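User: Just a sanity check before I run the rest of the batch. Below are the structure tokens for the first item. I only need the designed sequence back.
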């Protein structure tokens, strides 16, 4: 595998593009391993979706959606594929598995160094020729897209954070107390590896990374959308309200009645509205 810089392709299954009747190339779906700036290989998938390429191979004005899944997700999980399919009518889609998940290398740091994984995926989307990139993250991925936009300014054109925490170490709900056991205890990490297919790093954060609510003010002027379910069992609605308050006039908040947590709870109608929002803001 290549040892090139973050975002460069280590292995690709892309094929030469066929042509339409007008002579414009049509890019096929492809799968690749990317290498992050700290040397972790990341399994990534590209779907051209609604993006059309001109005769020079340049994508149309449609954006590319880079989707960041939640903890214990992976690029091949049905709920991640459903999200990708929902965004495909609005542009191209890049999905990937965070470190420690699926076929990607490394171990999960539960939102810390995952920012480097997202940076590699965004860079790959740019290398494919897309001028406009929207990042959409769910739960842990929602915190990652916020921190990525703050720490890597001007790499994205629109940011959507769904079901994200506002602050670290939250244990106020039973699901979050179970998650902390999974991450912090040796026996929990065994369950994570063999029960959920997620390899979790045993070291504590050092230093503690920038929190989502601290990251949000640094995102402006990039358009920001915060989406949260009013019935979220992991993070109550004070989390999205804290994020929205930190964003001020630069952010938009959607509180969804009856919605639970992350990808599993995001209905097709909500995903379509997010697709329209990114398509309209990422210009």
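Assistant: Here's the designed sequence for the first item:
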């Amino acid at each position: 595998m290549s040892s090139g810089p973050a975002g460069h392709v280590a292995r690709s299954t892309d094929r030469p593009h066929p042509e339409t009747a007008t002579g414009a190339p049509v890019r096929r779906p492809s799968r690749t391993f990317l290498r992050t700036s700290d040397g972790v290989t990341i399994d990534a998938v590209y779907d051209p979706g609604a993006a059309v390429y001109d005769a020079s191979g340049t994508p149309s004005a449609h954006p590319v959606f880079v989707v960041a899944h939640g903890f214990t997700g992976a690029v091949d999980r049905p709920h991640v594929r459903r999200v990708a399919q929902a965004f495909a009518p609005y542009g191209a889609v890049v999905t990937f598995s965070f470190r420690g998940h699926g076929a990607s290398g490394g171990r999960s740091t539960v939102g810390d160094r995952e920012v480097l994984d997202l940076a590699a995926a965004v860079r790959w989307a740019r290398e494919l020729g897309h001028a406009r990139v929207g990042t959409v993250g769910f739960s842990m991925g929602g915190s990652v897209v916020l921190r990525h936009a703050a720490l890597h300014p001007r790499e994205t054109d629109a940011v959507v954070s769904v079901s994200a925490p506002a602050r670290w170490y939250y244990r106020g709900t039973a699901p979050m107390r179970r998650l902390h056991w999974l991450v912090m205890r040796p026996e929990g990490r065994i369950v994570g590896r063999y029960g959920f297919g997620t390899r979790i790093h045993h070291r504590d954060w050092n230093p503690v990374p920038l929190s989502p609510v601290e990251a949000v003010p640094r995102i402006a002027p990039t358009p920001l959308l915060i989406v949260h379910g009013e019935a979220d069992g992991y993070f109550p609605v004070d989390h999205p309200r804290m994020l929205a308050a930190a964003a001020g006039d630069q952010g938009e908040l959607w509180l969804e009645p009856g919605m639970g947590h992350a990808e599993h709870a995001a209905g097709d109608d909500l995903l379509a509205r997010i697709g329209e929002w990114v398509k309209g803001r990422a210009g």
